[in-house]
Amino acid sequence: MEIETVIDEERLDPEDRRSFSWRTVLFGFALSRRRLHRRDVDSDVIFLDWHHPWLFFLSVSTMLLSCADAFLTLELISRGMVEANPLMQAALDRSTTFFVVTKLTMTALGIFTLVFLAKAHFLNRFRTGLFLTIFFSTYACLVCYELVNLFRLM
Length: 154
Hints:
Layout: H1 22-30, H2 53-78, H3 86-94, H4 96-116, E1 121-122, E2 126-127, H5 129-153
Antiparallel strand pairs: 1-2
Helix pairs in contact: 2-4, 2-5, 3-4
């Protein structure tokens, strides 16, 4: 026994909600209404499809700082400094391209994981998103340190 589905042409909206447009981005990101769980029982679920814009800022900024760190590290090494991180030194010994790809991949995977788990609690005390702020601050200090050393060597 087959059930035949009849589509009522008059009920279909000419502008299908499933189609992608910039309006979708605006309402899906900036003006999204579902930022919390619908029911109290769902509060244990830590994965939502909306994250605070601050996490986006931290993610992009940390990735940009990582790129600056890679560039400044290579520049400082060419001026006589040494890499302090043994893992990155091993990558650098292999090739410059391998060093940059390894550094950026490790940073990107770390950022992705922290954003994905941003609502989770570490040791039942700290939101995991807090670690993204800590990594951003650490990278900012590291880039400042490298800039000071680069200006000193010039």
